[in-house]
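Section 5: illustrative case.
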């Protein structure tokens, strides 16, 4: 059984993108990189500012709690409620404090009969001080811990506040940044498109001029394409002029050759019509035409 002939495979032609598309693609990648990295950095800084504000608020409340704390000779703790913020007095207000004093735990009135397990807290991303924990009503809280000593006794104070406001502010910042950076990216892409379109306009004019030359409507590309493309147009015109001179010279040579070959061809034609052909004469005329060619 004979094998069937193998059909040659055609090479796959890869379509290359044009100069304008390449410039737009590179520009869009740059825009995405700038807006993406810049947006992330700005987001982190704004989030950190909000968390620092929350940390400062908790720290200020912790200072007032410590300032209102007194310890008697037996190590028993009492508080001056006049120095403690009012939000700690309302039950389940979202603001809580808890003091660990040598095995005894003191709580703010806002916790009522509940307690917060500090072991369940986890660090807050973007803050070195804050931790997050679930409150008595399963609400999300931000808190910080402070260790201090009074009269030789070690104490650990936990202060918590509602995280909802801070998280809403951060979510609002994320939405604003997304809209702002998205609009900025679109504006930059639109501006880049106009820039590429205007920047390549002289190149399109030069292309149109070459098409007119190809169609026979013009014989020169001319100038007026700008300082970058005018030298190229001048080189094209020089090549066209040189080709025109070569073609003109070739036409003249062809005309001279045609005129010079007329006499030998006429003699050969006469020899072909005669009854007896003079071989020497035919050979002499052929040699003459070879020399001319």
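Designed sequence:
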């Amino acid at each position: 059984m004979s094998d069937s002939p193998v059909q040659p495979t055609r090479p796959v032609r890869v379509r290359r993108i044009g100069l304008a598309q390449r410039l737009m693609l590179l520009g869009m990648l740059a825009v995405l990189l700038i807006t993406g990295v810049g947006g992330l950095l700005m987001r982190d800084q704004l989030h950190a500012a909000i968390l620092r504000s929350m940390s400062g608020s908790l720290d200020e409340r912790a200072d007032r709690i410590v300032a209102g704390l007194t310890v008697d000779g037996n190590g028993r703790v009492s508080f001056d409620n006049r120095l403690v913020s009012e939000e700690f007095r309302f039950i389940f207000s979202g603001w809580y404090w808890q003091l660990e004093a040598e095995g005894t735990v003191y709580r703010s009135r806002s916790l009522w009969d509940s307690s917060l397990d500090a072991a369940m807290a986890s660090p807050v991303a973007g803050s070195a001080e804050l931790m997050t924990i679930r409150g008595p009503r399963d609400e999300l809280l931000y808190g910080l811990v402070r260790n201090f000593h009074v009269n030789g006794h070690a104490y650990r104070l936990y202060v918590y506040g509602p995280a909802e406001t801070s998280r809403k502010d951060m979510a609002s910042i994320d939405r604003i940044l997304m809209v702002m950076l998205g609009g900025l990216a679109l504006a930059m892409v639109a501006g880049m498109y106009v820039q590429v379109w205007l920047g390549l306009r002289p190149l399109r004019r030069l292309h149109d001029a070459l098409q007119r030359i190809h169609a026979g409507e013009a014989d020169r590309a001319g100038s007026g394409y700008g300082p970058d493309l005018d030298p190229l147009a001048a080189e094209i015109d020089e090549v066209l002029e040189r080709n025109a001179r070569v073609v003109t010279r070739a036409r003249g040579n062809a005309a001279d050759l045609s005129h010079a070959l007329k006499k030998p061809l006429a003699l050969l034609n006469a020899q072909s019509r005669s009854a007896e052909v003079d071989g020497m004469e035919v050979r002499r005329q052929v040699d003459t035409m070879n020399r001319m060619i």
